[in-house]
Each structure stands twice: as structure tokens, then as C-alpha cells.
Amino acid sequence: MSDVAPEPEERRPTAGPARDPGILMADRSDQLAPRPAPKAVREAVPKSPRESIVTGEVPPPPAKRVRSRMARSSTLGFMSGLITFLTLILLGLGAAVYMGRSEFEEPGPLKETKVVAIPQRVGLSEISDILAKNGVITYDLVFTWGVRLSGLADRLKPGEYEFKAGISMREVADLIADGKVVQHSLTFPEGWTSEQIVARLLENTMLTGKIAAVPEEGSLMPDTYKFERGRTRESLIAQMKATQERRLAEIWGKRVDGLPLATPRDMVVLASIVEKETSRADERSRVAAVFINRLRKGMRLETDPTILYGLYGGKAWLEGRTITKADLAAPNAYNTYKNAGLPPGPIGNPGRAALEAVANPSRTNELFFVADGTGGHAFAETIEEHNRNVQRWRLIEAARRGGAAGSEGEPVAQGLGGLPAPAGTRPAGTAAPAAKPPVGGAPAVRPAGTPPAAGGAVAPRPVTPAAGTAATPRPVGPTPGTAARPAGSSGTPATPGAPATVRPPAAGTTAAPPPPPPPPPPQ
What we know:
Layout: H1 21-32, H2 39-44, H3 49-53, H4 69-105, E1 114-118, H5 124-133, H6 140-149, E2 159-163, H7 169-178, E3 183-187, H8 194-203, E4 224-228, H9 233-253, H10 264-277, H11 284-296, H12 304-312, H13 325-329, H14 352-359, E5 368-371, E6 377-380, H15 383-400, E7 460-462, E8 500-502
Antiparallel strand pairs: 1-2, 3-4, 5-6, 7-8
């Protein structure tokens, strides 16, 4: 048998006779007594507050990994080299940025002003290459990066640019980004016809595009217009029309009361005649007053430019023209010698000064004007005064051309090459003195618009270019240094060496054959 007594089995109450309560309590106390804890558990239970905080034993640290000295040395060398390399790169970039910025800001290599065209649809690299090839910049790469860093790469505009000598790359970039292209100018003289204006537009090679149709006469405002290379011709015509409409409305609104003009178009028509009659600024309002006074009195205007325009249209002033008896008798709605009032339309495109002169003419009663020998005109209110002015002009012309006086003091002029000198004019329907026999083979001078003597030649009319229109001859209208004529006839008396335009005889008269052409003037 074993020495260790077995542990008593737990006894459960069974049904049976009642037992003594004291005995039951003793048995139950034996059952409820705590069992002893295992040794490990007993040791882990803290015995004091300090023991609950401080552990009794600390675990040892983990074992260190021991690296070789060679491995540590290679790692440190790689890191040191990498840092050195990056430092050198940063220093190089800093130096490059500093030098590039200095180059971008400093004056460029251009020695003199130069115009360079930047085409459409090109990028920054192509623009840099164009500028470098034209000597505007030195380094295209510096310009490219300078533009990018400046934020201007997307703002560069095509066009024609003028670069000043020594311009820096930054100034070049700003100029192209702002689109400050070269502005060209084109001048259209006052009084030009629409056909002349269209011809000048087509001649200009900096403009582009076609012109669909010749604009209506009098719808364009002659002036000097600015434009950039590549602008379309139609857009410039549209600008001229808009300028005309704006100025015409402004001037018409400021016109004086009582003018015999019903519409702004009437003002344009009369201003186009004034434009052909005189080119002197100080005489426009007086010439306009003469025509206004004649309209008020129901007198015919009797002006040659209207006849020329009626015969030749917009080509009337492209070359020297002559007015013959046949021209005067031909059906012509613009013939102001036969038709009363204004012609049916403008005979050119008048400028602002002529429009203002018609809108606000001089306050005079003058009905006639004739050349005064100084490049201007002598104005008259009566036919008698006008005839005296004509006689003075005849004497001046005779003296200038070396002519002699005929019998009874009638002046005779000798033109170049045997041609007669132009004479002053008279209103249609007034009596003219009989022409005297010519002296030295030259026809006698007579008032224009009156019938010549039997066998006499029609007095010539001059063709002289207007001031500022040397490229295209302007056959009508006095210019400084040339003689003028009275109302009722247009054009300018001839100057030495200028071609002549023949004045017509009155209706129902016969003119002799024209004289032979003059020899060329001496060089």
C-alpha cells in the first residue's frame, strides 16, 4: 500500500435523514478552504507596492551585429562622393543660371536697327533660331530658356518687328510678347477717285488679299493710314469707309444753316468739285462759297472736272486729258455747262478740309474767280470786276511767256513750242471781245468758254500734278506756282513744260485743228 493517503472524495449531500447543522457546517468549511497556489504563482505575486513597479530581473539586450571595418568604409565613401557630386552639380547650375541671366539682360550683338519677320505658326525654338541667324541674339539656347523662365513662351506673336541696335534678349522677348509690330503707312491724296485708291492698294506688296469691287465714289476718306505687314486690302478699305462715315456725320451735324444742300451726299458731291478746283487750304472756303452762291442763284456751276469725270469716270485723272468741242457736246450727265445744279454723284473722294469748307463756306457774294499770278485766285462778285481780273491775268501770262500785245492793246501770249498760253475764263453766255489776229503765228488769247475767232484754235488747258500726288498726275486744280481760272471752268493753267488740255469753244462754233505738239523742253 502506498504511504500517501488518497485524497478524500468530495462528498455530496444525499437524501437521508436529517443531520446535525453543526456537523454540516464543519464539513462545508473543510470543503471551502483554499487550495495552496503553485510555487511559480506564489513568487509572481507582489509582496509590496515597490515590487509592483520595479521588476526583479531585467532581460539582457539583444546581441549586436558586428560589421566589418571594410564595409563601413565603403558606405561612407559612397555617401561622401554622392554629396560631393550633387554639390558640384548645384554649383554648376547656379553658375549657369547666373551667367545665362546676365547674358539675357545685357545688351545684344546687333550693331544697327534691323527689321525681322516672325512667320505664322512657329514655336519658340524656331523663333530663337530666326533671331540668332539675323544677329539679334547671340545664344538661341539662352534666349529659349530665358523666355520660358520669364513666362513669355506662350505669348510670342508673329509679325514684323524692328529691333534697335544693342537690344537685349529680354527686350526682344518683351517686344515680341507685346506684339509691337512695325507699322507701315499708306497715303491717299484728297480728291482721288476710288479707282485710283484701289490701284494704289493693289500696288502695295505688304498688303494681302484681293479687292472684290471698286468702292462707290465718295465713300472713302483719303488720309494716311497705318497698317502692319500682312493686313488685307479689304480690311483697309473697310477702315476708310468707316472713317468717312464717322467724319461725314460729324461735319454734316456742324454745317451752317441755309445751305442749298439737301443731304450729306450733296455735300460730298460739291466737296469733290472743290477738291479739284483748288489745292490751297486758305482758298477752299471761298471757292466753296462761289459754288454755293451760284447754286442759290440758279446759275450753272460750269466746271471742267465734272465733264472729264462724266467722260472717263475714275480714270479721268490718270493721264492728261483734253476737253474738245465734241466732248462738250456729247451726252454727259456730269456736264455742268449744260445741266443745272449738282452732278449726279461725286467725282472723287474729298478730304476732310474740303467737306468742312462746303459745310461752312465763306460769307461772301462772290460768283467768279480767276488766277492772280501768285498761285492763288482773284475773286469777284460782278462780271465787270471779273473781266478786269481776267485781263490782268492775260497780261501776266503774256509777260511770262514772252508774248507781244496785238493791236488796240489786246494781249497775246506765245506758248512753248508755238502753243498758245491758257487764258482766263468767262461765265457761259457772256459776250467776249473779238479775238485779234495772232502775232508771230500764236493764236490770240481769249476768255475760255467763249467761241474763238474764225480759224482760231481752242485755248489749251493745262494738266499739272497736285501737291503730294507726284506718282499720279492730277490734271485739274491749281498748285503753287501755277495759274488758276475763274469759276465756271476747272483745271489749272499750264506751267512751262506742262502738258496742255484744250478748252472747248462754245456750242455752235467751229474750232480750227489743234496746233502741232510742242517739242520737248530743253534739259
